[in-house]
Amino acid sequence: MEKQELFKIGDVAKMFHISVGSLRHYEKFGLLKPEYTDQETGYRYYSTRQFECLNTIRYLRVLDMPLDQIAEFLRNRDVKKIQEMLQQQKKRVVMKQNELQIIEKKIENRLQQLQDTLSSELDTVRIIQTGPRRITWIRNKLRPKSYLDLETSIRQLEKQQENTVVFPGKVGIGITKERLLKKQYETYDIVFLVLDQEDNYNGIVEELPNETSVAIRFCGSHADAPVYYAKLANFILAHKLTITGFSKEITMIDYGITNDITKFVTEIQIPVAAI
């Protein structure tokens, strides 16, 4: 075969708007071997009769078809076969769209949370209303001085999960009602994870009802919390409220987001009711 009937690999790549690396990958995968390879120079050449095959590969790749399925089709081209492949690929695309929608929702949740946190009024006690929340939790006594002290508990919460469900601003610790009433703020009893509605958690999930809470946000992390628990306790006493459940303490901004400790923000919520 005369070389003038052939096209260099670089020229073919330009014609089909793909990379030389892609053509080499197709060759390695057995999809499209060069018509001729110069044994002295190693240059690869393709003929026009291979262009139809390359067009088919490129079309199926645009549809995100896996290379092994493309190879199978090229070995046994058939109308029914391509119909089946396209139907299967359509199902995969729909699944991927659903996954991307979930990812988009998670991103939106985190953006809203960050915006809310950055606009917080710090060191001010507020009475807030929270809607129903899904959480999973474990009892674990600890006295965290940094986020590293929570790692073992976080791994327990994430155990056996197919996808990551632990993100900044979702992991919290709590003090039981009994300990709050005794004003014991140094030791925590619960580690919990707030689940987004789209989270598919493989384990025991508790649905928290609507809650009225006294809350405070402050610059700092868990090690700085006791003084703010005392501030909340004074507010509860002054406004004749009673504690109805365990506290929910979450670092909204910490090392997971920034190394600047002056930008850390932690929130404490204590559920209450009127006496």
From TrEMBL:
<keyword id="KW-0804">Transcription</keyword>
<keyword id="KW-0175">Coiled coil</keyword>
<dbReference type="InterPro" id="IPR011256">
    <property type="entry name" value="Reg_factor_effector_dom_sf"/>
</dbReference>
<keyword id="KW-0805">Transcription regulation</keyword>
<dbReference type="InterPro" id="IPR000551">
    <property type="entry name" value="MerR-type_HTH_dom"/>
</dbReference>
<dbReference type="InterPro" id="IPR047057">
    <property type="entry name" value="MerR_fam"/>
</dbReference>
<keyword id="KW-0678">Repressor</keyword>
<dbReference type="GO" id="GO:0003700">
    <property type="term" value="F:DNA-binding transcription factor activity"/>
</dbReference>
<dbReference type="InterPro" id="IPR009061">
    <property type="entry name" value="DNA-bd_dom_put_sf"/>
</dbReference>
<feature type="coiled-coil region">
    <location>
        <begin position="79"/>
        <end position="124"/>
    </location>
</feature>
<dbReference type="GO" id="GO:0003677">
    <property type="term" value="F:DNA binding"/>
</dbReference>
<feature type="domain" description="HTH merR-type">
    <location>
        <begin position="6"/>
        <end position="76"/>
    </location>
</feature>
<protein>
    <submittedName>
        <fullName>DNA-binding transcriptional regulator, MerR family</fullName>
    </submittedName>
</protein>
<dbReference type="InterPro" id="IPR029442">
    <property type="entry name" value="GyrI-like"/>
</dbReference>
<dbReference type="Pfam" id="PF06445">
    <property type="entry name" value="GyrI-like"/>
</dbReference>
<dbReference type="Pfam" id="PF13411">
    <property type="entry name" value="MerR_1"/>
</dbReference>
<keyword id="KW-0238">DNA-binding</keyword>
